[in-house]
Amino acid sequence: MSEKIIPADEVSNSEEIENLPVSDDYDPALENIRRKFSIRQFLHDAPSIMFSLIIHGIVLIILAICSLPAIVDFRPDLTANLEDLGEIEDVDIFEDEPVEINLDETNDIAEIDTTVETITPEMNVPETKPEIATSDLGNLMAPNTLISQINNTGDLGGRKNRGTAVAGGGGSEASEKAVAGGLQWIAEHQLPNGAWSYTQLRNPNCRGKCKDSPMDAANKSYISATAMALLPMLGCGITHKDGKYKKEVKAGLDYITSNYQMRPEGIILAEKGSTPIMYHQGLTAIVICEAAAMTRDKNLEKIAQGAINYIVWAQDPIGGGWRYSPKQPGDTSGMGWNFMALKSAQMAYLNVPIKTIRGAKHFLDNVVGIEGGAKYGYESAKDGPRLSLTPIGLLGQMYMGWKAEHPALIKGTDYISQAGPQLNNIYYCYYATQVMHHVGGEKWDKWNKRIRDELVKRQTMEGHEKGSWSVEIGGSLVGNSGGRLTCTAFATMILEVYYRHLPLYRRTTTVDAFPLD
Q1: Per-position DSSP letters for 39-83, written without gaps between them
Q2: In this prediction, what percent of the chain has a pLDDT beyond 90?
Q3: pTM, rounded to two decimals
Q4: What is the topology classification, in CATH, of domain 91-116+170-194+216-500?
């Protein structure tokens, strides 16, 4: 007689299974259970199981340790007491490499808030910026694109550690106080809708209290004026997410991103119904690209890419430059703003066509370049060299790969150095300061001391205009069309040069040249 068979669903543990009697009636299901829970089988399979567990464990540990590089964390603090420009306010700016500066008499920066906060509640700006779907850019995306792999937003990284850059680059306590004063004046002259105006006669917070040139109203673009005001804010590391004037920056960016024009060719950064001017397009695109690079704001990245696409489309297909209107034969000044927009786009990881960069290179080399590129004309080389335009050409060449020892660069910077800073032409000084800063050495030391100390000396230190610079430093062109706002923005950015862009030819820089292949 066969022994009693225990049903499989009544088996409670593996020991019972091991001791089950063998039935004459072979039960496949029971035999399968017996084999599954067999101790002997388990011991047989254990080595392979343990080996698999160990391998998977090691892989998980490696994945946990690895991480992608972090985006630069811009957390700036304004570093001077703006109520009294005679005092330095914040020791944190020099925390990386202490500088011998007397900080005994400091004031709480919170005391400054009330001046600017009175403007903010009146601003009629959208709560959130308009979203652009990626699909909206569809046929706008530039072909044959180059995606730059610059670590941590490239040369914008100096804005994070301003103290180190000021101490090592030639800045001073006085220059940083001047920057703080310029930023406060700019913030105080923002319009209620978040924009800025080139003329303060239109500003309800000023009503003409600031002395402007009689022709100051010549430039009526609120978007480009807003971009001009935001450039030195961003240059000091302030964004719409971090910094002393983040509310003002946000309101300004909201104004720009609420008023652009969408076209099949790209995004025009100009008020609806107005004619696009490529000078303004380049200037404003720099702002949007820098803000996107510093914050990784996805909506700004989309708008920035659209604006860059329009610049790409608008390039002169023959000469390779830009001027006032799309496709128009270029001039060196218009080329400067639009080329720097492309450079800012590269630092923001946006798409920049190599073909466009080659066109810009052709413009500098063959259209306006003189003496092998040491000097530059306006519309063509036949114009003859112009001191005010030569720094623009040299800066473009540096960003397109010229090394510090390039003969034309040496000759060109000698030309600038011999002429020296000219404080009746702030536009020339703006570009020349960047070139000399990148070159460094004795030329930079000599240039820096003169431009730094002269700008500090010329800053208005009293009254409603306190913190700004007169239109006199802009000359007839910049002073008349850009007014006190443009002169103050340029002067402030010149004094930010120590950290606004890292030097190209120093070992610490991560800036990549535009490849042309």
Answers
A1: HHHHHHHHHHHHHHHHHHHHHHHHHHH--PPPPP-------B-SS
A2: 55
A3: 0.72
A4: Glycosyltransferase (1.50.10)
